[in-house]
Design brief:
Blueprint lengths: L13 E3 L1 H23 L1 H11 L7 H25 L2 H19 L4 H29 L6 H28 L4 H4 L1 H15 L13 H20 L13 H23 L13 H21 L2 H8 L4 H6 L2 H21 L4 H17 L8 H29 L5 H41 L17 H5 L3 H15 L7 H12 L11 H4 L3 E3 L2
Parallel strand pairs: 1-2
Helix pairs in contact: 1-5, 1-6, 1-8, 2-6, 2-12, 3-5, 3-9, 3-17, 4-5, 4-8, 5-17, 6-14, 6-16, 9-10, 9-17, 11-16, 11-17, 11-20, 14-16, 15-16, 15-20, 17-19
Length: about 525
């Protein structure tokens, strides 16, 4: 690092040398690891969890509830970090996540589990957004690729460990350890952050945008609830003519409209609308929305497909997800190092969106008897595309905004992606579950069974263990039902990915800054 001019205005300073930056980086990685692990650990355990707690038809809420909570609080953490500093919000998010993890492990009903998962999301949103904002504070954009690459790879590592651990706990211990595992990790992460995360605090000089916070929460919740409750296939959920759904949609539109008005009048808006006049921010937000709707919606159901359709065990289905995570890790790290070396980033989102679109199209060829080698190649391609895009567009956003708005811009970009993930998961879950219930009901009826029952088990209570104990003819009905429900559903996501590729083509190359955010704001100096 090069020396910088000392801060002015008598502000307390932080000396950013390589040792300090790496200590801070260790704290961020420990927090991010905990949050990202929890996003994937339920994938292999979910069929058992929802079967045991009688929640098959609403299984998407285990994912949607968490993502919704993350989305709501992301802008808050971003703004609070910009206003007051990022140390205390980061510590609070770790503590909240850890306590909610313990409560989730003791949940005795599906509703309670969804509730505590949402509380986890309130902490997880802070862990993810503050980690990215703090890196922008302490590392110049020109050098940030070598840090953000490992951050992207960390999602790959945790996504590998998550399904494996989820499968191991479900097979050999209890699925509740998927949550209890976060307790020691959370305590360690809190300890590391407490000792190493020495960042300056600030005092708010402007009034908080409380109306914006309330209206954003209402609008976000309304969007996700409308997507979850709508009968997209005409079989489950509310019909579009239902007064309850109409009221929800109207209320959501009103909340969004009032939010926009509130942001134009706020002294210090939660989501400054001028950000959308920034071409790079707007395009990156659009790409993030597409990725959220397409990728995260689909990935949550692949382990379930493997368990039910191919006969894979819980742990084996986690192992079979390794190729996708290998693709994420490989391209995330190599693209980060390449950006540091060449100083350019535009080519990577373009290539990544093209590859991810191709991978998603390929997944429409899934069948119950698919070769596991072919399946591995399919998901490797998907992961490779994802790894090229995720952290690169965050870097592009941070590099294009005022250093005083790094947290706000980073959180806004991630917020839009998480909204996409929540809505996409809700839509995809509705489409997939509706097809599945139809297939199972039709299959059981053809077999001369009472609708909604198979060997004494209702459709809502199917678990991989129960399916394996069924007579072969009935088991085959379930296998075919899962395969025939999932593969065609991917076609709904392909146009979204293609739109994301088109947006990436319009990104402009902006020269990467060589000054860290805290230095640019006069809060720190850099030394070798």
């Amino acid at each position: 690092m090069t020396a910088a001019t000392a801060p002015t205005e008598g502000r307390p300073t932080v000396v950013l040398n390589r040792r300090t930056v790496w200590l801070i980086f260790a704290a961020l990685m420990s927090g991010m690891f905990m949050a990202s692990l929890d996003q994937s650990i339920l994938g292999t355990a979910m069929p058992t969890i929802v079967g045991e707690l009688n929640g098959v038809e609403h299984q998407g809420w285990l994912i949607t509830g968490y993502i919704l909570a993350v989305a709501i609080v992301m802008p808050l953490y971003g703004k609070f970090g910009d206003i007051w500093g990022r140390r205390w919000p980061f510590l609070v998010s770790i503590a909240l996540f850890t306590v909610a993890s313990a409560a989730s492990g003791f949940a005795t009903s599906f509703g309670a589990l969804v509730f505590f998962r949402a509380i986890q999301g309130l902490g997880g949103g802070g862990l993810m957004i503050l980690s990215q904002a703090i890196i922008a504070d302490v590392v110049p954009a020109r050098e940030r690729g070598k840090y953000m690459g490992p951050m992207g790879a960390l999602f790959g590592v945790s996504a590998v460990l998550g399904p494996l651990l989820g499968g191991f706990f479900t097979d050999h211990m209890d699925w509740r350890w998927c949550f209890w595992l976060n307790i020691p990790i959370g305590l360690v992460a809190f300890g590391i952050a407490w000792v190493t995360l020495r960042l300056p605090s600030r005092s708010a000089k402007k009034r908080l945008d409380v109306p914006g916070m309330i209206l954003l929460a209402l609008g976000t919740s309304g969007i996700v609830l409308a997507a979850s409750w709508t009968s997209w296939t005409g079989n489950t959920g509310y019909d579009w003519a239902d007064p309850s759904l109409i009221a929800l949609v109207v209320g959501t539109l009103v909340a969004i409209g009032l939010f926009i008005v509130a942001e134009t009048r706020a002294e210090d808006p939660l989501l400054p609308l001028h950000l959308f006049r920034n071409r790079t921010f707007t395009l990156a937000a659009g790409i993030g929305l597409v990725i959220g709707m397409s990728m995260f919606a689909a990935l949550g159901f692949l382990p379930t497909f493997l368990q039910m359709s191919t006969g894979s065990g819980v742990t084996q289905s986690g192992l079979l997800m390794l190729p996708m995570m290998a693709g994420v890790m490989l391209t995330s790290i190599t693209s980060g190092l390449a950006i540091v070396k060449i100083g350019k980033y535009r080519m990577f989102p373009i290539a990544g969106m093209a590859i991810a679109t191709a991978g998603l199209i390929w997944l429409t060829r899934l069948t119950g008897d698919i070769s596991l080698l072919l399946f591995s190649v399919m998901i490797f391609v998907l992961g490779a595309g994802l790894g090229l895009v995720m952290q690169t567009i965050v870097l592009a956003v941070q590099n294009s905004v005022d250093p005083r708005e790094i947290g706000t811009a980073t959180s806004a970009n991630n917020f839009i992606r998480e909204i996409g993930a929540a809505v996409g998961t809700a839509l995809f879950s509705t489409i997939f579950t509706s097809r599945l219930v139809d297939n199972l009901t039709e299959g059981f009826a053809k077999a001369g069974m009472t609708p909604g029952a198979s060997g004494g088990l209702g459709v809502d209570s199917l678990t991989p263990e129960a399916v394996n104990q069924m007579p072969e003819a009935i088991k085959q009905i379930v296998v075919s039902s899962y395969a025939d429900a999932l593969a065609p559903s991917f076609w709904y996501l392909v146009p979204l990915m293609a739109a994301g590729f088109a947006l990436a083509l319009f990104l402009r190359e902006v020269k990467l800054s060589e000054t860290a955010g805290m230095v640019a704001r006069g809060e720190a100096v850099t030394t070798h």
